[in-house]
Design brief:
Length: about 100
């Protein structure tokens, strides 16, 4: 919970000063396989397109708030890449799932 609060606080401050960064939170960051996770996009800018890499060889394109199931145990780095309306790259955010 502390991690989520810190992230939301940082995003709120970033929005107030006009700086935006892609960000998301999982509903669960660890557990036993199979592990189903819903990701909530917290990006505070007008991106219209997101690509996801779930770190297990699975990718997903064009979805804002995806779900993914990890069928094998392990450590995975989830990355979200954000693009604007002209498909210009804005930035990315990563999170470790264990």
């Amino acid at each position: 919970m502390k991690k989520l609060f810190t992230l939301i606080l940082l995003l709120t401050v970033a929005s107030l000063v006009g700086f935006s960064q892609p960000a998301f939170v999982p509903n669960n960051g660890s557990g036993c396989a199979p592990l189903a996770i819903n990701f909530t996009n917290l990006s505070s800018f007008p991106s219209v397109y997101f690509d996801w890499d779930f770190g297990d060889g699975t990718t997903l394109n064009g979805v804002t708030n995806p779900s993914h199931t990890y069928v094998n145990g392990g450590n995975y780095t989830v990355s979200m890449y954000a693009y604007d309306g002209a498909m210009s790259y804005i930035g990315y955010y990563s999170y470790n799932i264990t």
